Amino acid sequence: MSDTSFAPRIFSGIQPSGGLTLGNYLGALKRFVQAQDAGTDTIYCMVDLHAITVWQDPAKLRHATRELAAGFIAAGIDPARSILFNQSQVSAHAELAWIFNCVARMGWLKRMTQFKDKAGKNAENASVGLFAYPALMAADILAYHATHVPVGEDQKQHLELTRDIAAKFNHDFGVEFFPIVEPVIEGAGTRVMSLRDGTKKMSKSDPSDMSRINLTDDADTIAQKLRKARTDPEPLPDSLDGLADRPEARNLVNIYAALADMTPDAVVAQYAGQGFGTFKPALADLAVDKLAPINAEMTRLMQDVTEIDRILGEGAARANAIAQPILDQCYDIVGLVRARA
Ligand code: AQP
Hints:
2 domains; single chain
């Protein structure tokens, strides 16, 4: 059930912590475009403050932010219809995150599996920012009173925390100020797995480049990565049940389905009895067909980074016009004196 006391508005973001992967595209970007094209109020963000929760080389971060913006636009985000900007240009995100750091409980954050995964055994040495990351993510969303957040499966727990933070803030201050957001986790591409290990999600920061398809990969590289993707010797079964214990095969079927806008059932029905010698080249052709135009457009857009910066600046001004009054009201609710006109 969505929070009907707020007008529908979609917010989502992607970290410029490396290049875009097929996982980011199918789990997030492609669905961002669908939401925009459906006429919903859409706000999309390059979450650069999240990226620096782990060390980023400054020059690479600047490049990745611009390249990510190019990826959004190349995939179909229209900066005139969606608000497109990078997080650090709108200070309300960081300011509201501080309020939420004071609302969220240590116990809640300690349960976040992403922190455990990313900090690993070295948690004592992880940044405080990596631990507090979900409070900033809640601020990203709630600074716009967004009601719906399209994400991949891996972000579900963070969105539950966003709901908890909003509910606790509303309860603590006796208001109905922040909406209780709805995660939108739909379709075959919400959990794209590594091409080397079907139990691990495809990720920008995986040390193995062969584990993922990057949106900047050329056609030959895409075909080669899919050809070398780990699979098993069995042919495809005639129903999805037959893939229950075959995570790598299931992953390739899901990728095919998400790229072709088909259901995984329909893909299995089409390729039943065929081996990967047939399926992988068909998947490679499909992937190249869908990704090559995005890749070409990203390359074109990256030739004019001044224009990308201009688009992000304009998006930031529009985002700020929504977020700043919400932050001001939040400060009033909390009891922070606002003496300037
Ligand atoms: N493998 C995936 N399958 C489906 N969706 C995915 N997303 C990420 N990986 C997959 C979705 O992409 C959006 C942006 O993710 P992010 O950049 O904020 O961070 P992430 O989830 O941590 O992505 P990565 O690629 O794994 O980045 P690193 O390696 O830097 O941590 C989110 O909606 C996410 O669900």
